[in-house]
Write a structure and sequence with these properties.
- The chain has nine helices and nine strands.
- By secondary structure, it is of the alpha/beta class.
- The longest helix is centred in the last third of the chain and has 17 residues.
- It is globular and about 55 Å long.
Length: about 240
């Protein structure tokens, strides 16, 4: 009941018919989060004019936000010998080969990101039906299949996030925490939007970015003015 009252109060502070600038939306969400007893995640949802079922309209990639995400990411690495040691020193939470594959097959998956050295793909390839649906299958295009496992681990720990358009052409991502100051959150959001713009596939036709919404873990959705997004992206590039 308390949560529903808080949500009702939050909705009253947001004009559902209005399109807000990014900074204003961030300030509203930060203000509303003060009534929460935890550090809320700030999330973005982007509706794109693509149909990911067609290969030439797929939108997928990896981006390292300038101020990180504030989230603690547990990383598993498939590697042997020197590469395994490099991964451990870089901060990997789980490192292994066949033994790690057996744990995953048994349902032991206490991590959010999987990285593999190229020579491990014979083992990792057998886990496609398990890792694939969870969006954790290592992929060379995303930098998660790489001989530089240490760099990949550091990037994941430092706030690198994977994005992928779902069936309806929607991209979701966490872009920070409510404890971040407004400037850092705004930078992360504009950086992410710019990454999506740069990932525009060849097969996309008509309007590409159609709608952007910002929200927090328990906050209302705030619609973003697309004109303000273009201006923010251009300023970011100029800087």
């Amino acid at each position: 009941m308390a949560n529903s009252k808080k949500m009702k109060a939050a909705l009253e502070k947001v004009d559902r018919t209005k399109f807000y600038g990014i900074q204003e939306a961030v300030e509203i969400l930060k203000g509303l989060s003060k009534s929460r007893n935890f550090d809320e995640s700030i999330e973005i949802a982007m509706n794109l004019g693509v149909d990911p079922r067609h290969a030439d309209q797929a939108v997928r990639g990896m981006v390292s936000l300038p101020n990180g995400t504030g989230a603690t990411i547990r990383v598993a690495v498939f590697a042997r010998d020197e590469k395994a040691e490099e991964a451990k020193k870089a901060g990997a939470d789980v490192v292994g080969a066949e033994d790690l594959a057996d744990k995953i097959k048994a349902g032991e998956m206490d991590f959010e990101r999987v990285i593999a050295s190229p020579d491990m793909m014979g083992i990792v390839g057998q886990l496609g039906k398990v890792l694939g649906p969870k969006g954790m299958m290592p992929n060379p295009k995303l930098g998660t299949v790489t001989p530089n496992v240490a760099d990949a681990v550091k990037a994941a720990k430092g706030g690198a996030i994977e994005f992928r358009a779902e069936k309806a052409g929607i991209v979701h991502a966490g872009v920070g925490k409510s404890s971040f100051d407004t400037k850092k959150l705004t930078e992360n959001i504009t950086f992410f939007i710019d990454a999506i713009q740069r990932a525009k596939p060849a097969g996309a036709k008509g309007s590409y970015i159609r709608k952007i919404t910002l929200t927090s873990s328990m906050g209302p959705g705030i619609k973003i003015d697309l004109a303000s997004v273009t201006g923010a992206a251009q300023q970011g590039k100029a800087a």
